[in-house]
Write a structure and sequence with these properties.
By secondary structure, the chain is an alpha+beta fold. It is globular and about 65 Å long. Helix 5 (76-90) packs across helix 6 (126-136). Helix content is 28%, strand content 32%. Helix 7 links the parallel strand 9 (213-221) and strand 10. The chain has two domains: 1-37; 38-354, Endonuclease/exonuclease/phosphatase (Deoxyribonuclease I, Chain A, 4-Layer Sandwich).
Length: 363
């Protein structure tokens, strides 16, 4: 209901603006805004699902009972409800989730003694909690693709005796689709390039039909690049991804955490530059400010790095001339207060609503 009211208010405001002026350029802008709220507009989201740095600290072997207790005190329900708020507001057709963590335990553990029995007792899995929360709100989403990335197990010091349990943290990239989106051709894979052999990164994709229009939707999470070694691996992963999609005949919507600072533009971000040179367009740079509820809150702070991207590519003709109006804003979990509406970005996610002129799918 709040979503409908928000759209209604936006359209009323646009209508009043049209009555008071007849500038041809502004009239075309009104037409563009109507296209964004038309039935064939596509809404996508890219978002990190991790609850924060607590899980990463656990992987610094051996972990301690105190560090694990800190994780168990995290308000997982609040985190999931906040993400559900964002999804309820945007109603995306497709969602690319990165850092989807699953935590399993083994007690007593054997990793400290060189054992190889994997921990299997499930302790934390946010994705089913999120899907249940969405279902309770009448929002029907389903998992349509998943790739397993790092799967690490470390000892957990539980007493001064000493005694140990094992904590196993598995990382996934997952694609969710709304119930009314037809999906086929799920694919997934790992990059050959990796910084550490036991920490692979990958991608997942599906062919999705939205209102008679078909897209290849891809989600990924590239290697961070804090140094030259990381940058080489990240660039190699991007080249693998670009190559795997080069012969894709469908329009591509590529989302994820690319760990390449788009804010630095073509000069300062080599991976970002390679993606643009490969024909991808960063939809954030094509936002229509009048359509996107122009506000300072929608702009990424200059001190931050915009690492989460929504990129599009049309294989038929040059895309910059075809990409229609775009509404885009940042979402994230590190907000002081949960609320509806476009959020200030903490760079953990982006929502984009756009139109790409496409041929209608023929059965």
């Amino acid at each position: 209901m709040k979503y409908v009211m928000a759209v209604g208010l936006c359209m009323v405001a646009l209508g009043a603006w049209q009555v008071t002026t007849f500038n041809p350029e502004e009239e075309r802008e009104e037409t563009s805004s109507a296209e964004l709220f038309g039935p064939d507009a596509l809404t996508v989201m890219t978002r990190g699902l991790s609850t924060g740095a607590g899980l990463e600290r656990l992987l610094e072997a051996p972990g301690t009972a105190e560090s694990f207790a800190a994780l168990s005190r995290a308000d997982v329900s609040t985190h999931v409800r906040r993400l559900a708020d964002e999804i309820q507001y945007a109603r995306p057709h497709l969602i690319g989730l990165q850092q989807v963590k699953q935590v399993r335990l083994q007690s007593p553990g054997d990793a400290i003694f060189g054992g190889t029995q994997p921990a299997e007792s499930l302790y934390l899995d946010l994705l089913p909690v999120l899907l249940s929360e969405l279902q309770a709100r009448g929002l029907h989403y389903r998992e349509v693709a998943r790739v397993r990335n790092a799967d690490l197990e470390v000892p957990l010091l539980t007493s001064a005796a000493p005694t140990f349990d094992d904590v196993r943290v598995t990382d996934f990239d997952v694609i969710l689709a709304r119930a009314d989106v037809d999906v086929s051709g799920a694919r997934m894979g790992h990059y050959r390039a990796r910084r550490e052999e036991d920490r692979p990164r990958g991608w997942a994709s599906v062919a999705a039909t939205v209102e008679g229009r078909k897209y290849r939707f891809v989600s990924t999470h590239l290697e961070p690049a804090p140094d030259e070694t990381g940058l080489r691996v990240q660039l190699a992963q991007a080249e693998e991804l670009i190559g795997s999609l080069r012969r894709e005949s469908l329009p591509v919507v590529l989302v994820g955490d690319f760990n390449t600072p788009a804010n630095l533009g073509l000069v300062g971000a080599p991976t970002y530059r390679e993606l643009l040179l490969a024909g991808y367009v960063d939809v954030w740079t094509h936002r229509k400010e009048k359509v996107a509820w122009s506000s300072a809150a929608l702009d990424v702070p200059r001190r931050e790095e915009r690492l989460n991207l929504v990129l599009v590519r049309n294989p038929v003709t040059p895309l910059p001339r075809q990409l229609g109006p775009v509404l885009a804003y940042g979402v994230g979990s590190a907000l002081e207060e949960p609320r509806f509406g476009p959020w200030p970005s903490d760079l953990t996610g982006v929502v984009a609503r756009l139109r790409m002129p496409l041929a209608t799918v023929r059965n």
